Amino acid sequence: MADVVPKSWKPKADMQRIHVHWTAGGHKANSTDKAAYHILIEGDGDLVRGDKSIAANAKGSGMKQASHTLNANTGAIGVSMCCMAGARESPFDPGKFPMTEKQWNKMIEVVADLAETYGIMVTPVTILTHAEVWPNLHIKQKNKWDIVRRAFDSSTVGHKEVGDVMRAEIAAVMDRDLPEIPVDEIPQEMKPPKYRVSGVWPSTLNFRDAPNGKRVGSLPERTVVERLGVVDAWWRVRTRQGFIGWVFSDFLKPV
Ligand SMILES: [Zn+2]
C-alpha cells in the first residue's frame, strides 16, 4: 500500500505489536502527547510525529522508549488519537473533544501501513487498543478505557467490540492491495481443509512471501488457516483476516 505514514517515521526495527490509544487531551497534539506516543492523529486527521523513534521501543534498543502502555512498551508501537479530554465512561460523556470519525478512519490507514511495514499480523494480541492490553495480553493496566467507545458511533461499545471493528477495518484496508484469489483454479482436494497452528508456542510460526522466502509476519499458536496450495513441505495458506502467505507445514494440524 501507499505510504500513509512518511517513510522517515518508519525506521527499520523488530516490532511485535501496535497499541491504539486516545490521548485524553484536546484535538491537537501537545508536548505531553508527543513524549508518550510514536504517532498522533489530530481531530482533523493530520498526523504528528512523536519525539521518540519507533525503533526506540524495539527490544534492546538502548534508547528511551515512548512510554504509552504500562509494562508493555517493548516491541510495541504507540498510535494515539488526540481526543477525549474530560470524557467520562459511565454514563458516557465524550467531553468537549470527542473522537472524530475522520481521525478514526485515518488511524485505520496508519495502523494498516505500520502493520504492513513491520510485518505485524492483525490479531487481538498483536494489534489492539489500550483497553485490550489487560484482557488480551494479561498485563494489568490502570482504568484505561481507550478504546471502549467511539464517540461518533453509539452502537459499538466494549473493548472487544471496538477492537474487533478496528481489526476488521485494518484488515480490509490491507486486503485492498492483495491480488484476487483464483478460488476456481484451486483443485477440489485443496479447497476444504482448515488447519490450526500447533506446536510453536511460546514462539510463533513464520509467515513468508514464498516457499522458504522472506518472513512477512508470524502466526500465533492456534491461528486457523485455509490451505490454498502445496510445494513440498511448504503450504500456501490464507488467514481469517485474508492474508496469504507460505508456512512450513510441520506446525499445522487439521482442525
Ligand atoms: Zn492509552
Number of H- or I-type helical stretches = 4
Q: What oligomeric state do these chains adopt?
A: single chain
- Top-tier CATH class of the largest domain: Alpha Beta
Q: Which architecture name of the largest domain does CATH use?
A: 3-Layer(aba) Sandwich
- CATH topology call of the largest domain: Lysozyme-like
Beta strands, count:
14
Largest sheet: 5 strands, mixed
Helicity range: 10-25%
Hetero groups? zinc ion
Q: Tell me the strand order in the biggest sheet.
A: 3-2-4-1-5
The secondary-structure element order is EHEEEHEHEEHEEEEEEE
Residue-averaged pLDDT, rounded? 92
Rg from alpha-carbon coordinates: 19 Å
Keywords: Hydrolase
GO molecular function: N-acetylmuramoyl-L-alanine amidase activity
Protein name: N-acetylmuramoyl-L-alanine amidase
InterPro entries: Amidase/PGRP_sf, Amidase_domain, SH3-like_bac-type
What are its keywords?
255 residues; alpha+beta; Lysozyme-like; SH3 type barrels; five-stranded mixed sheet; five-stranded antiparallel sheet; 4 helices; 25% strand; globular; binds zinc ion
Describe this structure in words.
- The structure is a single chain.
- The chain has 255 residues and is an alpha+beta fold.
- The chain has 2 domains: 7-175, Lysozyme-like; 184-254, SH3 Domains (SH3 type barrels).
- Helix content is 18%, strand content 25%.
- The protein contains 4 helices and 14 strands.
- The strands form 4 sheets. The protein has a 5-stranded mixed sheet with strand order 3-2-4-1-5. Strands 13-12-11-8-14 form a 5-stranded antiparallel sheet, with no helix packed on it. The protein has a two-stranded antiparallel sheet with strand order 6-7.
- A hairpin with a 5-residue loop joins strand 2 (39-41) and strand 3.
- Helix 2 (101-118) packs across helix 4.
- The longest helix has 18 residues, at 101-118.
- It is globular.
- The two termini are 32 Å apart.
- The relative contact order is 0.13.
- The mean pLDDT is 92.
- Zinc ion is lined by residues 21, 130, 144, 146.
